[in-house]
Amino acid sequence: MKNNIDTFSAGEVNEFIMSVDSCILLGIEENRNDSSPYYAGKERTSINRLLDYRDNYIYWIFDFDLPFTNNVSERGLRGIK
Question: In 3-state terms, what secondary structure has residue 62?
Fold first, then answer.
């Protein structure tokens, strides 16, 4: 919590969510208009994953205690491998 900030304002949260949604919609539109068939399927898969898990990806803006990477989980699993 740099600068003792533990929440974002409602306006900041809304602006961020609208920005994320705008980027996803732009990705959908660009994928739809892409003339190259090579990676269109993989792009579509990534976009669909963003749509399906959008709330999970942005939850850190509501809970500052949530780690933004999964490094702790990966380190915990190393012993099991």
Answer: coil
